[in-house]
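We treat protein structure as text, and this decision shapes the records that our systems exchange. The tokens are whole numbers drawn from a learned vocabulary of local backbone shapes. One such record is reproduced below, unchanged from the form in which we store it:
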Amino acid sequence: MSPLNFTAYFLLLFLKQNNIVMKKINLTILAIGIALLGMSSKADAQIQKGNLMIGANVANLNFGFQKGANVSFQLNPQVGYFIKDNLVIGGLINLGVDYQKSRGTNVFYGVNAFGRYYVSDPSMVLLKHARFFGEVSAGVNGSNTKAEGKEAITTNGFGIGFGPGVAYFITPNISLEALAKYNLIIGGGTATTSNQISIGVGFQIYLPTSKARAVYNEASSEVQEKK
């Protein structure tokens, strides 16, 4: 038995002997955690086919404390699956608000599909644990601005976004990233188009789903055999 599998078996047996109910969700979480311990330290290992990516970006963050100051905030959680090495596709949600005294409050949203490609060409790798990437998203989006005493400006319809970014792996399975993205909405409302450039920072967690599944299945079988 490998050290990784032995660790999984030992932890599962310990919980069982202490009368802790082992539900499926507990086994899954434990297996994923153990799988992370056995991951490679190379950035390339985290962007391989079969891995899962979960994270979020915070963009256009601005909080002024003086009277009448601008306030803006955008949160973009996303989850994706690597369909091949360096290429991940998944779902992305955009939620944000932008308040300016002179223009009013703009609330925007989006439910999108996205694709991201990590560049692994050695000539493009500036740091050992960093990777450049390009991201494209498309889906249902909206931008709605309301100012006191003025007519609301709304655009709701099809949205598309694209831009470059860079990810730096601070641990074998976690990266910090920066992303600059142009977003365009085309649809109905008082305005037919709306566009913005967002600059954000965030993080991603990379999970090796195949390894987690294998550890989970083997550890579960061994626990069942010891009953």
